[in-house]
Amino acid sequence: MLTKESIEELERQKYRVVGTHSAVKTCGWTKNMINGEGGCYKLKFYGIMSHQCMQMSTSISCANRCTFCWRGYKAPVSKDWKWSVDDPQMILTKSLEAHHKLLVGYGGSEKANKHAYQASKDVKHVALSLTGEPIIYPKMNELLDKFHKDGVSTFIVTNGQYPEQIKNLKPITQLYISVDAPNKKLLKEVDKPLFEDYWERLMQALDYLAEKKARTCIRLTLIKFINDVEPENYAALIKRSDSDFIEVKGYMHVGESRNNLGRTNMPIHEEIIKFTQSLMPFLDDYEIVSEHIPSRVLMLAKKKYKKEGVWYTWIDFPKFEELANLGVEFTSDDYLAKTPKTGLSGKGTWGQMQKHIKERFLKENEHLFVDEKTNELSFYED
Ligand code: SF4
């Protein structure tokens, strides 16, 4: 899949290539969390421990060339899988090895919190969303089984160009589809898809997402002046998917996307709030739950996740793993946990969140606290 030149380019960008088609890269939020500088938005929204998260992909190749993506032009694109298929156990073992190796420097760092670094050796979450389209890997279900057996939760982000693979996916902790434009014409401009029937594929993918019983999410990436239009049409696509959650996120002017877009295409957080509010009249079943200002993202959830006035958008990870490993039928309702802090800026109290976090993670993460300056979860120093 990769030429010598593209492997070198990826390694220069701090990716580590695993086998012939997978890659790992340390997420900036994993590093921040180890340094005591706060966790990612998925910690705040869903309870992912950012310092125990591995970011990777099982396919560096993709069927889109999205203008907002940080991938380089040397990254492979293809409609079909044309490569050898690496063994899922090898991918899991070697990815973890590469992930730990990338973090090893924190072991001797003055700045790093030693509790967080120590805990990072026990990976609890995998984000299959690094680069490329992970679900075209033909043995994805086998790999998912292995992660779940090892007590690792799975988040997958797909661009919706492979509906049959979405249909055939086993239950995963949270499955995302990126909806990058509100109409067919704009999707072609934003995503530059290889498939001619890209719109029909996305529609079929949304229909299959609606049939999923485990947690699902629609991700919007807003590019100012380009796709931050037609909220009614976005809402229609979201309703079609019947997703449990919605994330409305701002485009970040990073990586190779800087060749396609300008800094002015990056919306500020207030613009994300404004656009999200314009969606609300068309989304009766949803409410805005939370925000993460550093990532310029808002999270919405179906109202059913609010029980007696309290939001339950966090994940009971051990419960999910238990259910997934039993192989029984279950739904998103079966692995919910209370969300410690919700609301837009200024709402909710730090004390409440801190108490909840400490209660829930007392054993594993007794050094966690909420940093009032950065607004994020962090660690107590000794
Ligand atoms: S969930 Fe995503 S943003 Fe958060 S630590 Fe993992 S890879 Fe990074």
What does the model show?
By secondary structure, this protein is of the alpha/beta class. The protein has one domain (4-379): Alpha-Beta Barrel (TIM Barrel). Helix content is 33%, strand content 18%. The chain has 13 helices and 16 strands. The strands form 4 sheets. The protein has a 10-stranded mixed sheet, with helices on both faces. The chain has a two-stranded antiparallel ribbon with strand order 11-12. α10 (231-241) links the parallel β7 and β8. The longest helix is centred in the first third of the chain and has 16 residues, at 88-103. It is globular and about 50 Å long. It starts with a helix and ends with a strand. Residues 346-350 have low confidence and may be disordered. Iron/sulfur cluster binds at residues 27, 29-30, 40, 42, 48, 50, 53, 55, 127.
What is the secondary structure topology, with strand pairs?
Layout: H1 4-12, E1 16-18, E2 22-24, H2 28-34, H3 41-46, E3 53-57, H4 88-103, H5 114-120, E4 125-128, H6 140-149, E5 153-158, H7 163-168, E6 174-178, H8 184-191, H9 198-211, E7 215-222, H10 231-241, E8 245-250, H11 269-279, E9 286-292, E10 297-302, E11 306-307, E12 310-311, E13 314-315, H12 317-326, E14 336-337, H13 350-361, E15 368-370, E16 377-379
Helix pairs in contact: 4-6, 9-10, 10-11
Give me some keywords for this one.
alpha/beta, 10-stranded mixed β-sheet, TIM Barrel, binds iron/sulfur cluster, globular, 16 strands, 382 residues, 13 helices
